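Exercise 7b. Backbone tokens:
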């Protein structure tokens, strides 16, 4: 029973993150106009910052979208399928792209948190590519096992 509660909580959390991420991406210009009162870089480079944050945010939302798809296969108790391999590869590409978009932000302002975010997205991208290979092997073993039976 606890497992089902945990699964429902994770599903709710992923849904919340996905829809709130979409909302934040859409409202970036409004948020940055407000933040610009305290941080001048958001005023002087308003358009550039909006574009870069939107790109990074959109890729983050796409990653969460792929996680939602993958989690649905967990709920269906059918994890080792080709669709999840594809999702992991997409997540790797999205993570690297978000890392690149965030790296471009360094030309406008350098902060320790920006460097940490770049590293996190880059490592997550590499991890997703490696995990896609693991899932690919698992799918292969599963298909061979299904044919044996």
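Sequence design result:
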């Amino acid at each position: 029973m606890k497992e089902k509660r945990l699964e429902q909580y994770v599903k709710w959390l992923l849904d919340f993150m996905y829809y709130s991420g979409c909302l934040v991406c859409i409202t970036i210009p409004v948020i940055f106009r407000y933040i610009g009162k305290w941080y001048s870089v958001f005023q002087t480079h308003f358009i550039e910052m909006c574009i870069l944050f939107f790109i990074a945010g959109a890729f983050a939302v796409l990653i969460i979208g792929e996680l939602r798809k993958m989690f649905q296969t967990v709920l269906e108790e059918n994890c080792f399928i080709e669709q999840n391999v594809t999702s992991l590869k997409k997540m790797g590409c999205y993570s690297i792209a978000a890392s690149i978009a965030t790296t471009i932000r360094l030309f406008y302002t350098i902060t320790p948190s920006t460097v940490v975010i770049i590293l996190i997205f880059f490592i997550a991208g590499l991890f997703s590519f490696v995990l896609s290979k693991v899932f690919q092997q698992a799918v292969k073993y599963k298909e061979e096992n299904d044919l044996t039976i």
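Instructor comment: Residues 87 and 117 are 22 Å apart (CA to CA). The longest helix spans residues 112-148.
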